[in-house]
Design goal:
Keywords: ATP-binding, Nucleotide-binding. By secondary structure, the protein is an alpha/beta fold. The chain contains 12 helices and 12 strands. α1 runs parallel beside α6, α3 packs antiparallel against α4 and α11 packs across α12.
């Protein structure tokens, strides 16, 4: 899972990136892309690891991407959004703090500005494709009626200055996947507040249509990311922070994308795997290896809560909570799965 971090100049994108990825602040890299991979915190993985004592414990991972340059350009060039078009979702950092030499923050206006730019960038892509389809039609080349219909719906929404994410069916249409529309991507808004302020900004909307919003105190969280575990605990208590920003943002990102985790366990490895909610067992198998999907026979499934209640896998089997499921079984969050396959 890759999340692209976007925002207007001065919003604190780099500070937030450092906080989320626990990276040391770096100067002189504003024009360079930055990538940070962190593990997804999950106490269930820790418990399973203590239970099985495996040689390896592997958490699910999330990747944060901070492009050197994107959006907010007077030329309104849609190519400026190219760096984040392959991201699964976007995190929009919005300035809600005062800084020397800068005007007072206008978070809701800034939020609307970048949302409008995403809509405009997508509209330019749609119009260019529709022009090409019309040119091909005049040359006698047939067009795909479904693609034409979907693009026309996109143009209608975008001309109304409405992001595509507001229509989930349209935003996720397989035929449009190649366009990688930025306004179609799930969006998490991070209001970047001052150290003492943990409230959403007053007035206006907390988030644009079909988006989620939360507060982060970027500078404070950046300092926290550089501390030892003992220092961090004391710091969290002093500022009444329930959990570091990394944990909270990853949790909200998972919910935003509709992601869940299932587990594989054993003496060799305990591992969390990330899939989308409502994923059939046969497709979950492919996340591990394509051969498992190809030779899928059955999925041996035990819910995490049932394992905890039983105390061991063997006892859970005696209690009848270990069950065999077929290809169409929809994997649930926390399922412990052993795939039976033959290639």
């Amino acid at each position: 899972m890759r999340l692209g971090i976007i925002g207007l100049p001065g919003s604190g994108k780099s500070t937030v990136f450092d906080a989320l990825t626990q990276s040391a602040p770096e100067s002189g890299r504003r024009a360079e892309d930055r990538i940070g991979t962190i593990r997804v915190p999950d106490p269930r993985v820790d418990i399973l690891s203590r239970m099985y004592q495996p040689r390896k414990t592997i958490f699910a991972q999330v990747e944060y991407f901070l492009p050197g340059k994107t959006g907010h350009d007077k030329k309104k060039d849609p190519n400026l959004w190219t760096p984040v078009r392959d991201c699964d979702a976007l995190i929009h950092v919005v300035r809600n703090f005062r800084a020397y030499g800068m005007e007072a923050p206008t978070p809701h206006a800034d939020l609307a500005t970048l949302d409008e730019e995403m809509v405009l960038a997508d509209l330019m892509v749609v119009e260019k494709r529709l022009e090409r389809i019309e040119l091909d039609r005049k040359r006698g080349k047939p067009s795909d009626p479904e693609e034409l219909s979907l693009l026309s719906r996109c143009r209608e929404r975008l001309e109304a200055e409405t992001p595509l994410r507001g229509d989930p069916e349209l935003a996720r249409a397989p035929q449009l996947r190649g366009f990688a529309f930025v306004s179609a991507k799930p969006l998490l808004v991070l209001f970047n507040n001052e150290d003492e302020d943990d409230a959403l900004p007053e007035g206006g909307k907390d988030a644009p249509d079909a988006a989620d919003a939360m507060v982060i105190r970027g500078k404070l969280e950046q300092e926290l990311a550089q501390m030892t575990e003992a220092e961090a605990r004391e710091f969290l208590e002093e500022f009444e922070i329930t959990a570091p920003a990394t944990d909270r943002v990853v949790t909200r990102s998972y919910a935003l994308l509709g992601l869940i985790s299932f587990f594989t366990v054993g003496d060799d490895e305990v591992r969390a795997w990330t899939i989308r909610r409502e994923t059939p067992a046969v497709d979950a198998a492919e996340v591990i290896h394509s051969d498992i999907k190809k030779g899928f026979i059955r999925a041996e499934v035990l819910a995490y809560d049932d394992l905890m209640a039983a105390g061991s896998y063997a006892e859970a089997r005696k209690q009848g909570t270990v069950r065999l499921e077929g290809k169409t079984y929809l994997v649930q969050d926390g399922d412990i799965i052993h795939f039976r396959f033959n290639v």
